[in-house]
Predict the 3D structure of the following.
Amino acid sequence: QAQLVESGGGLVQPGGSLRLSCAASGFTFSIYGMSWYRQAPGKERELVASITSNGGTTNYADPVKGRFTISRDNVKNTVYLQMNSLKPEDTAVYYCTATNRGYVRYWGQGTQVTVSS
């Protein structure tokens, strides 16, 4: 019964900050890479950020580089996405995923982030 539950989404003003959390359960969190995806209405789903199982390496999509930070706590079984300097184009549903051997194994339900304009 693997589960990923996102939280922390909401409405923020341009230039504001938001921290998303993803609580994992039902699998060995510490051996999975974790990623955040997002999807806006009418747009293709895109990979936003990823982090290796031990947190040693992170990767970011160009539109969020310098503004977003992915991190994880393998004691709390939680992955985070700190979003700063938010822009209206960041508005989307954000999804947490767990990856093993190059495949996304589990998806969360998503949390809505809306940046007002």
Notes: The mean pLDDT is 97. Residues 30 and 54 are 7 Å apart (CA to CA). The two ends are 39 Å apart (CA to CA). DSSP finds no helices and eleven strands in the chain.
